[in-house]
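=== RUN LOG ===
request id: a7f3
mode: sequence -> structure
chains: 1
length: 363
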Amino acid sequence: MKQTPLHSFHSQRAGKMTEFLGWLLPAQFGDPADEHHAVRAAAGLFDVGFLGRIELAGAGAEAVLQPFFTRNLAALTEGSAKYGLLCSKAGLILDNVLVFKLPPTQPGKRFLVTTNAVSTEKVLALLQEYAGKETQVTDVSALLAQFALQGPKADTVLEAVSGRHFKKIRQKQARTISIAEASVIVSRTGLTGERGYELFLPAEKAAGLWNALLETGKVHGLLPCGMTCRDMLRLEAGYVMYGSDIDETRSPVEAGLMAVVDLKVEFLGKDAILQRKAEGAKETIVGYELLDKGLPKAGATIFSESREIGIATSAVHSPHCRKDIGLGYVSVRYAQPGQEIEIEVKDQEIAAKIVSLPFYKRK
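=== RESULT ===
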């Protein structure tokens, strides 16, 4: 089973470890609800080293990546990032990724693509297949650690550790800064719905920075956070997860992701997406609240008056909503907020209703 550079640290201090897509990761350090509240009110620190990190460098880097990416790479300035999709020729989602444009270390351009754990090998093989001699496509996942520092006091904690001012780093911007004796790429990105940062640094420096952030952040209410808390936060923010809510059977049309598809750019799958958009999706992704206790498993059937209308994809208990919430796909005619539904939970049909997304939005 795969491990992040901080595995030995987590195995000693985590309250519970869990298997996630072939990785052994901390499910929680303490009470997941306490970790959740720390992120919403103060700050939380996540080890997200299980995400993939693929670097493209050289004269042909942009030409290799653009045919798969649904955003315009030519408009991406150095030191910034774009969230988008990698799509197949059939217009289906291969992965949802962040693409960073970094200062080049050789002639040409340099991009860092962060993939989902389940997709890293697939995306790496795809990009390497299309790369010519002018482009180096390298899996740097083992070389770089990746943290997420999230919450309203993330700036305060990071400034205290580094002695630098960070509030001028805008959303989707990235800067390389020396922190705790490590060269760190600091980016204003994250998956929690809060202001925060993701940090990329050499794997051998991971423990030093992790400990410095925890020690300095303690006085500001920072807690280390596990996978259970991460899932609560991303679902409350209405963010989809690859492998759960989206995969190679879904297109951006029914997945509600057309906002990150630039139809002025040429990429594989554009024609198929346009066709599906013109025809209209038969299903669409929705958020729902359970009206009775019970969390549906992925793939659980959604009903309306005993008629099967879709499937559930993700569900958690939300400390913010104080309810069980989730995402799923239903027939378009049943997708309106307020629609009463039932969801299969342990061979029972639990009452629920469709609600507007996101469940939580930062003020």
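=== NOTES ===
The chain has a mean pLDDT of 96.
The chain has three domains: 7-51+143-236, 52-139, 282-355.
=== END ===
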